[in-house]
Design goal:
Radius of gyration: 25 Å
CATH class of the largest domain: Alpha Beta
Number of strands: 21
Length: about 500
C-alpha cells in the first residue's frame, strides 16, 4: 500500500487510500457532497437528506480584502438580499417620517438616523439566521463541515479547515454551489486597497459617510439608494448604462427618481485611481469620457459594485476537465445542471447562463436533489423568472424587456400597453409620482399572450409576485382585463391598462 501511494504529501496518501477503498468496495462515504453553503446549496442538501440520502455540505468564507467574514448561509443571508432589504426598509421609514407631517403626525425635535443602531439590529438578525441554518442541517442529519472544498476526481472531495487540517470525502455525486464574490477593477490603483464591496457595507460598525458607489448594477443602485435614504451623501458613478440586462425605459425611471430623491449621478465616467489623504479621506480621480476631462473629489468611503466573479478557481475543476466559460469563469451546465464530467453537477450563480437570483438557486437545488435521489425527472424552468430591484422607487419585472421582445418578435409583432399612475399614498404627502409607471408587453397578434410585465412603484416585489404566476401560466391581455382589481391599490392599474404606445395617446391615469 505504501508503494502504491508513495508521495511527498500526506493528503496524496490519504486520497489514494480513499480512492483504492472506493474502487474495491464500490461504496462511498456519502450519496451527495455539496460544496457551498449558500441558499441553493443548503436547499439541495436538505432536500436530498429528506429523501434518505447521506449528505455532507461544505462551506467556508474567505474574509474579504477588508477582513469582513460571516457565517453559514451564503451571499443572500449575509451580504445580499436579507441585509439589503432591511437597510432599504430603514430608508423607506425615513421617507415615511417626512410624509407623516402631511398626515397629521406631530414629530417634535430633529429626526436623525443612527447607523450603529441599524447595523446592530441587522447583523444580529443575520447571525440568528446563521445559527438557524446550522440547526436545520443538524435536524435533517446533514453533515456540516466548515471547510474549503476542492475536487480530486468525480467522486472525491478534499476538505481543508482554516487550521490546515485535511479531510477526504467520497460521494456518488458532487454538487458545486459556491456562487460568486464581488470584483475589484484590476486597472484602478488603490481600488482594492481602500475600497469596500457589498461584502463589507452591511457589516460596518460605523457609518460609511459620504460615499461614492462605482457601478450601475442593481447592487450599486440599491446600496446608493438606501445610503441616500438614511441621510448620507451618495454618488453613483456610471460608465455606460444603468441596470444592464433590464428594460432600459424602466432603468431610466429608476435613476430619474433616485436623482430627484437626492442621489447624485456621474454619468459616462471612469475611475482612474484612489488615494488616501492625510485626513483619512479617499481622493478619487476619474475621467469624464464624454468630454475627456479629469475630475477628483474626496469621499469617506468608496463602494465598488462593478460585477461579481464565480468562486470556481480554487475548486480544481481544470484538472478534472470540467468545462468553464473562459470569459466568465462560470461552469458550463446542461439543462439538468450536469457538467462535462459525470457525477459532477453545478447550479446557482456559478452556472453559466443562470439567473443570479436566490430563489432560482433554491428551486434548482431542490429539483436537482430529487433527480439525483431518483424521485423526479423534473427540470428547472428558467423562463419568466420574476425579480425586483429594491431602489427608493422599487422596480419589479417578469418576462421579457421591451427591447428583448422586439428583438425576438419584431417591433410590429409586439404591443405595449402602458400607464403612468399615482399611488394613493403619494397624494396627501404631495409626493412626485412622475416615475410611477407600468407596462405590459404582449404579442400583437392572436390572443395577445403577455411576454413581459414591468412595474415601478411601492411594494413592487409584492405586486410582481402575483402577476408572475399569471405570466407563468400563459396569461393573455384579455385575461388581464377580465381580472377584477383590488381598490385602491397600485396593482389594480394593471387590470385597467388600455393605452398602447403605438397609439401615441397620453397614458396618464386620470381616475377610476
Amino acid at each position: 500500500m505504501a508503494a502504491f501511494c508513495r508521495g511527498r504529501h500526506r493528503w496524496k496518501r490519504t486520497n489514494c487510500w480513499h480512492v483504492l477503498t472506493r474502487n474495491l468496495t464500490g461504496k462511498f462515504d456519502y450519496d451527495l457532497v455539496v460544496i457551498g453553503g449558500g441558499s441553493g446549496g443548503l436547499a439541495c442538501s436538505k432536500e436530498a437528506a429528506q429523501l434518505g440520502q447521506r449528505v455532507a455540505v461544505l462551506d467556508y468564507v474567505e474574509p474579504s480584502l477588508q477582513g469582513t467574514k460571516w457565517g453559514l448561509g451564503g451571499t443572500c443571508v449575509n451580504v445580499g438580499c436579507i441585509p439589503k432589504k432591511l437597510m432599504h426598509q430603514a430608508a423607506l421609514l425615513g421617507t415615511a417620517v417626512k410624509d407623516a407631517h402631511k398626515y397629521g403626525w406631530q414629530l417634535s425635535g430633529p429626526v436623525s438616523h443612527d447607523w450603529s443602531t441599524m447595523a446592530d439590529g441587522v447583523q444580529n438578525y443575520v447571525r440568528s439566521l446563521n445559527w438557524g441554518h446550522r440547526v436545520q442541517l443538524n435536524d435533517k442529519k446533514v453533515k456540516y463541515l466548515n471547510m474549503k472544498g476542492s475536487l480530486v476526481d468525480e467522486h472525491t472531495v478534499r476538505a481543508l479547515s482554516k487550521a490546515g487540517k485535511e479531510t477526504i470525502l467520497t460521494a456518488k455525486n458532487v454538487v458545486i454551489a459556491t456562487g460568486g464574490r464581488p470584483k475589484f477593477p484590476a486597472n484602478v490603483p488603490g481600488a482594492a486597497e481602500h475600497g469596500l464591496t457589498s461584502d463589507d457595507i452591511f457589516w460596518l460598525k460605523k457609518s460609511p459617510g459620504k460615499t461614492l458607489v462605482v457601478g450601475a448594477s442593481y447592487v450599486a443602485l440599491e446600496c446608493a439608494g438606501f445610503l441616500t435614504g438614511i441621510g448620507l451623501d451618495s454618488t453613483v458613478m456610471v460608465r455606460s448604462i444603468a441596470l444592464r440586462g433590464f428594460d432600459q425605459q424602466m432603468a431610466g425611471l429608476v435613476t430619474d427618481y433616485m436623482r430627484a430623491y437626492g442621489t447624485r449621478f456621474a454619468w459616462k465616467c471612469v475611475p482612474k485611481r484612489v488615494d488616501k489623504l492625510s485626513s483619512g479621506l479617499l481622493q478619487v480621480t476619474w475621467t469624464d469620457t464624454s468630454s475627456g476631462q479629469e475630475h477628483r473629489d474626496a469621499y469617506d468611503s468608496v463602494l465598488w459594485a462593478v460585477g461579481r466573479a464565480p468562486e470556481s478557481k480554487v475548486l480544481g475543476l481544470d484538472k478534472l476537465g470540467v468545462q468553464l466559460n473562459p470569459e466568465t469563469g462560470k461552469i458550463v451546465v446542461a439543462a439538468d445542471e450536469s457538467t462535462s464530467v459525470p457525477n459532477i453537477y453545478a447550479f446557482g450563480d456559478i452556472g453559466e447562463g443562470r439567473p443570479e437570483l436566490t430563489p432560482t438557486a433554491i428551486k434548482a437545488g431542490r429539483l436537482l436533489a430529487r433527480r439525483l435521489a431518483g424521485h423526479s425527472s423534473e427540470l428547472m424552468d428558467y423562463d419568466n423568472v420574476p425579480t425586483t430591484v429594491f431602489t427608493p422607487l422599487e422596480y419589479g419585472c417578469v418576462g421579457l424587456s421591451e427591447q428583448e421582445a422586439e428583438r425576438r418578435h419584431g417591433s410590429d409583432g409586439v404591443e405595449v400597453y402602458h400607464a403612468f399612475y399615482k399611488p394613493l399614498e403619494f397624494t396627501v404627502a404631495e409626493r412626485d409620482a412622475s416615475q410611477c409607471y407600468l407596462k405590459v408587453i404582449c404579442e400583437r397578434g392572436g390572443a395577445q399572450k403577455i411576454l413581459g410585465l414591468h412595474f415601478t412603484g411601492p411594494n413592487a416585489g409584492e405586486v410582481t409576485q402575483g402577476f408572475a404566476l399569471a405570466v407563468k401560466c400563459g396569461a393573455t391581455y384579455s385575461h388581464l382585463l377580465q381580472t377584477v382589481g383590488i381598490h385602491p391599490t397600485c396593482a389594480e392599474e394593471a387590470t385597467k391598462i388600455s393605452i398602447t404606445k403605438r397609439s401615441g395617446l397620453d397614458a396618464t391615469v386620470t381616475g377610476c
